Amino acid sequence: MVVVVFESSLGRLRSFWFLHAMFRFKNIRELTCLFVTLYILMSQSLADDQDFMEEFLKREYSLAKPYRGLGFSSSSQWDLMGTAVVTPDHVRLTPDMQSRQGAVWSRIPFFLKDWELQVQFKIFGQGKKNFNGDGMAIWLTKDRMQKGPVFGNMNHFIGLGIFVDTYLNAEKSHDRAFPYISVMLGNGTLSYDHDNDGRFTELGGCTAIVRNALYNTFLLVRYSRNRLTVMVDVDGRQEWSECADITGLRLPTGYYFGASAATGDLSDNHDIISMKLYQLTVERTPEDDEEEEITLPRVDGMEQFAVDVEDPGMSGVQFFFTLLFSILGLSVLAAVGLVVYGRWKENKRKRFY
Ligand SMILES: [Ca+2]
Q: Would you list the domain boundaries of the chain?
């Protein structure tokens, strides 16, 4: 969106220069007038774009300055967890100290279908390159406020996790540089493998040199019509570079946004400056609206998301005990039947006399 804003302003500017070629300036006053007009037009266009963006900003799902009452007030829409603290400039999930876990979680379940999340954050610390960790994650998951081994959140999560992994755990992995951003979709049974930096469950990702960077990092997550795109801006150029693009990704609604971070033997400051959620206007066909409601996240055509709901059948031991108890049950029934029959016969004989 920043790109859109920037490019559209630039577009207007270009068209003005085209007009400019048709003018001839007689004196400095005309030139000044031209610059003033240009300035007013530009600031006007920027304001228009800003208004346009603000219209679609969903404040109830956004976290931005000033963080009044965040985590404490009953009117706040976010909860803090672990080592997370709020300062006037950021929400610090972990300080640059060993073995810390912190998170911030939205209190309101999320039901929009087409959306875009822009996260502004900063990761920095005293440690030299490769002597820092572990990283942070952005979440949209069924459960919230859980502690665990996945960047400060639970393992076997259900929903979307986007990891900013700042430490390379896998020993034999030289094909990618760290920090590395990766996308994972959890269905409750998939496990995040920390020792391999989640490589086997990764749906997409990219290297992004976000640590100790000059500028704050911007991460964009766009989800629309079952397509998830992740883009990143690390060097303050206000230009997005593509990081991941996954189609056929199906995410149920009613989940919670969150951000978490963790340090271990190595550490860093993990700061969230803002998380802004925008609603996207997307034309939907009747087929889109008729689309089945899903209960578990999945990616079309991926085996690991096929949930086995069939009866797995009996094992040998189960079969043996089932047979044993059936025989025992039948024997008891037969014995009871015989006793009842014997009594009935005796009663009949007594009545006869
Ligand atoms: Ca790692």
A: 2-56, 59-305
